[in-house]
Structures are given as C-alpha cells and as structure tokens.
Amino acid sequence: MKLQKSTGLALVSVLEAAAHPERQIAAAEIAEKYGVSPHHLAKVLRELGRAGIMESARGVGGGYRFAGNARRLTLMDVIELFEDISAGAAEDKGTAATEVGRALDRVLTEIDEIARATFRSITIDTMLKLVERGRRSVRPAAPVPAVV
Amino acid sequence: MARATVGSEAATETLRVRQVQTADLDQVIAIDARVTGVEKTDYWYEVFHRYGTRGGRQRFFFVAELDGAVEGFVVGEVRDWEFGEPPCGWVFGVAVRPEARLAGIGSRLLEALHSAFRAAGVTKARTLVARDNHLVLSFFRSQGMMAAPFIALESDID
Fold first, then answer.
1. CA-CA distance, B44 to B23, in Å (whole number)?
2. Average pLDDT over every residue of B56-82
3. A37 to chain B, minimum CA–CA distance in Å?
4. Which of A17, A47, A110, B56 is most buried (most C-beta within 10 Å)?
C-alpha cells in the first residue's frame, strides 16, 4: 500500500500542527520544511479545514491551527479524507478471474488489512509520543571534556 | 490474546492496583463478560489458580480497585524461549469496566505488570491483539507498543 502525495502532506501537516496546538503554523513553514509545493499544500490544508481537523486564521500572522482531538483522531481518519484504502477499493487488474490471480489477491489483501489495522490503531497523540521518543533517542550525548 | 477494552488518562488518586483475591473473581468475570460478551466462569477460576496467589514469580494477575470495587484487571506471564525468543513478558488479558475508562486505569494496570516483568528480569513485553479490535490496539499503541518482529499464523485443521 502506497499513500498518495496529498495524504502524506496531510499527515505531516496535522502532526506539525498538533505538536504545537497553541500556535498557528504558516503553510509556507510546512512547505519549506518538507520541500513541497505551497500551492499543493494549500489545497491539502483547505481539505483538512473543511473536515474540522485544522482551522485557519486570515491576515498577517495567519496560518493553521490544529482543531481536532489528538487522542481520538487516528491516522486512518486523516487518510480517508484523501483516498479510499478500504477493503475492495484497490483497482481490479483483472487477475482475480484466474486461480493464480485469486491466490495472489489473498496475499495482497492480507498485507492491506494489516496496514489498515495499523492506521486505525494509531492516534495523533500516539504519533506525537513516537516523534518525541525518536527525538530523545537521537539527542546527541553531552560533549566529553578534552583530556589534557 | 489481549481480550479486552481499556482507556487511559490522568491517574485516579485513590486507585489501587494489587494482586487478585478470591473475592474479586465475580467482578473480574462480570467485567470480562461485558467486554467480550461471553461469560467464562470456569475459565477465570482456572486462570486464578494458575496466575493468582499460586502464580509464583513468573505469573501475574492484578486488579485495579477503586473505592472497594474492581474496575479492571490484567493478566500476564514471563515465558522463557517461547517461539525461540529469549524470556519476555506476555500480556494475556487486560480489561477495564466501560464506565471507568479514560481515567488511566488501563495504563496503571499495564505499569504494574511491567514492574512485575522487570522484577522477574525481563525487559520486553509482548501481546497479541485481533487486528479488528481497534480499541485495544489503540490502547497498546498509546502505551508505546509497536509491531513485534513476528507474524501470527493460523490454519483450519481438517
């Protein structure tokens, strides 16, 4: 299962905003950090705004603020706004008409089911904890004093 | 398999996590029956004998008590070289009464089990959850659990 670019942008935008729910984050800031088109990102943010996950503020210093419930909102909730990864949503390539095709479909379905279960079980709050744990694990050790 | 449904939030001050006692069993059975939809009285008495007071240093059965009532329970065991893996702690069951969820009881129960695992000398905890059990999966994820390097397999036996 490969997520579309818009979905990936939506996920990073939500996580960036949810990490600092008290402040408004500029679309340009996210676009620059992730090296993406501000135009494309703006469309993604508007969709998140329509869904009530982000709220926007106009004018100087305007931007987006996380408006969801981080402990309830799952990765799947965000993904489903941008693409359908539900069971049976995959494009039918015509292989299911053969025994080999059906056997292959069973294996691919198994993989997709695990992916969906994973997306449904991880909330934004859990993701933020994961980000923090990753940050702590790569924090550089204190410099060792030079021995003279 | 972890069978139940739990929540987590700020710890309740008067909550006490302790070893299960015989008098707790009816409440444990009732909580499990509500969560799973199946009453398993004989099973829970068997679990009590294996994991309760006679559990020894590797089997643990704790309840969360609030104002004299059992609000949840957790069952786990340290197993040596299960599936060829070095000793680790397995979480077999955890449940919190639905009305008591989102108060940190599930987290407290899991913390108590982790402490027991740690005291038994293991540093890894594992569990198995049905992939359509989103609530329990979310709970374990919120506690920092990640996918283990295993794949659970099954087959029909003719």
1. 13
2. 93
3. 32
4. A17
Whether A148 maps to a domain, the answer reads no
Residue A142 maps to a domain: no
B77 forms bridges with which residues in the sheet?
Answer: B59, B90
Q: How far is CA A53 from CA A63, A77, B102, in A?
A: 14, 10, 22
Domain contains A141: no
Give the domain CATH number at A121: 1.10.10.10
Give the residue from chain B lying closest to A111, CA to CA.
B151
To test the contact with chain A by mutation, choose from B138, B140, B150, B155 the residue with the greatest count of A C-beta atoms within 10 A, namely B138
Mean pLDDT of chain B, nearest integer: 89
Interface subset of A 67-86, CB within 8 angstroms of B: 71, 74
Kind and range of the H or E run holding B94: strand B88-96
A113 interfaces chain B, CB cutoff of 8 Å: yes
Residues A54-100: tens digit of each pLDDT: 998 876 667 899 999 999 999 999 999 999 888 776 656 666 689 99
In a domain, A86, yes or no: yes
B129, closest residue in chain A (CA to CA): A117
Q: Which residue has the tokens 């941008």?
A: A82
In this complex, do B142 and A125 lie within 8 Å of one another by their Cβ atoms?
yes
Q: Which domains does chain B have, with CATH numbers?
A: 16-142 (3.40.630.30)
- 8 Å CB contact of B134 and A121: yes
Q: Is residue B55 very low, low, confident or very high in pLDDT (cuts 50, 70, 90)?
A: low
Q: What is the pLDDT of residues A24-48, one digit of tens each?
A: 999 999 999 999 999 999 999 999 9
A45 vs A33: CA distance, rounded Å: 15
Q: Determine the residue of chain A that is closest to B135 in CA distance.
A: A121
Which DSSP category does B49 fall into? H
**SS3 at position B16:** strand
- Domain span at residue A71 reads 5-134
Residue pair B104/B88 in contact by the 8 Å Cβ criterion: no
- Pairing status of strand B69-79 against strand B88-96: antiparallel
